[in-house]
Amino acid sequence: MVAPPEAPLLSLRALREQACLILTEAGIENPQQESDWLLIAALPVKRHALTLDGDQHVPPSELERAMEMVNRRARREPLQYVLGTQEFRSLEIAVTPDVLIPRPETELLVEEALQSLLDVRNPVVADVGTGSGCVAISIAKECPRSTVAATDISRPALGVARANAISAGVCSRVRFFQADLLGAFARGAFHAIVCNPPYIPSEEIDRLQPEVSRYEPRQALNGGEDGLAYYRRLLADTPSRLRHGGHLILELGYLQAQIVKNMAASTEDWSSVLCRKDAAGIERILVARRA
Ligand SMILES: C[S@@+](CC[C@H](N)C(=O)[O-])C[C@H]1O[C@@H](n2cnc3c(N)ncnc32)[C@H](O)[C@@H]1O
Question: Of 26, 69, 182, 196, which has fewest CB within 10 angstroms of its CB?
Fold first, then answer.
């Protein structure tokens, strides 16, 4: 019997060209950069080998793994889900489709939370809607005197967050709770409550880029009809859970700052309400101090 001819081995150079072409045809904005990141993750090669060692052959099992990752990205699955991680404030945060991919703007939420805790000896903090745990874990890591209660309504998200807390070495100071917002937390429990709530108006979600609308969890995006449903609930629920002088720190969606600021200012609960801009000049973080 004659053995079937073996498929010719592909060189690293040919694979790199093919991967870049596939991502280009799929409409990915930085096809060369992204295909290189995918190949580095899929193959046992260092970055420099991609350009300097293009003649080496890629074994079939590695080729299959690389092509699977490239094809997932070509179907517009976010790069971070394909790679399984996203950097956030110098931490490697593991991400799966059960959690929102941490965004750079959210690093400001952590910064404001840390700022609000400077004068508190042993701060107790709540991170509401923790998702991957990026905010809760960063606060615990960067403020070693703190303990953090992290809540989410999604059990699978809490599993991802807990694993991230273990990897970051803070699991003894971050506790996770499956709860609807602040659930049954006691009066005056917290020095600070932080939250990056879902804030996209429901009807806009399907108009977002496919990476977001098709792959990120709806529960992490959907802010109700006008995008403001969570702000209304949080402004009503948080004052009683904060100590006097404690802070509520919220991430805001595009052009939501003035409306949310007005909502907060319409009650006697807060002694000051301020907003901080992000790098693009958009008012992104609201800081309200409990009266
Ligand atoms: C915009 S994501 C933020 C995730 C993470 N904190 C971050 O900044 O990357 C909102 C999170 O709130 C959670 N969530 C939605 N509704 C909730 C509710 N009623 N109670 C608690 N968490 C909720 C979602 O599951 C999601 O993880």
Answer: 26
Mutate to test the pocket of ligand 1, among 219, 278, 285 (most ligand atoms within 8 A of CB): 219
Topology at the third CATH level for domain 86-290: Rossmann fold (3.40.50)
Report the nearest atom of ligand 1 relative to the CA of 88: 9
Question: Does residue 131 line the site of ligand 1, with CB under 6 A?
Answer: yes
Residue 243, judged by CB atoms within 10 A of its CB (0-12, 13-18, 19+), counts as middle
Q: Which atom of ligand 1 is nearest to the CA of 154?
A: 25
Q: Is the pTM of this model over 0.85?
A: yes
Which tens digit of pLDDT belongs to each residue from 196-225?
999 999 999 999 999 999 999 999 999 999
Q: What are the residue boundaries of the structural domains of the chain, listed by start? A: 10-75, 86-290
Instruction: Return the residue whose CA atom lies nearest to atom 17 of ligand 1.
Output: 153
The answer to whether residues 99 and 205 touch, using CB atoms and an 8 Å cutoff, is no
- Three-state DSSP at 245 gives strand
Nearest CA, atom 27, ligand 1: 131
